Amino acid sequence: MVKSQTLRLSWRNEAGRTYSFSIDNPRNDLTQTEIESFMDLAISKNVILSTGGALVAKSDAHLVNTQDTDLYTPAV
Fold first, then answer.
1. What's the order of all strands across the beta sheet hosting 18-24?
2. Strands 2-13 and 18-24
3. How far apart are CA 33 and CA 68, in angstroms?
4. How far is CA 52 from the centre of its chain?
């Protein structure tokens, strides 16, 4: 069994659509304040340009936990 975490961050862009990206295996001690600060910085510095234009507002942030259990592995 393999466990992993992904931090998924989402913003609204100028076109009103959602832009998201994920960070695999984020630091275990990340705080909500750090995540919000990063998201605000991405907006204010305009460092991410999506196909719908610049990011204009935070939408959400999720920490996704995944547990993968291998049920079958073919013989090699």
1. 18-24, 2-13, 53-68, 49-50
2. antiparallel
3. 30
4. 18
> Where do the structural domains in the chain lie, given as residue ranges?
2-68
Q: Are 10 and 18 in contact (CB under 8 A)?
A: yes
Which burial class, exposed, middle or buried, applies to 25 when counting CB atoms under 10 A from its CB (0-12, 13-18, 19+)?
Answer: exposed
Per-residue pLDDT reduced to its tens digit, 9-58? 999 999 999 999 999 999 999 999 999 999 999 999 999 989 999 999 99
The DSSP call for residue 16 is S
pTM of this structure: 0.84
Asked if residue 19 lies in contact with residue 50, where contact means CB atoms within 8 angstroms, the answer is yes
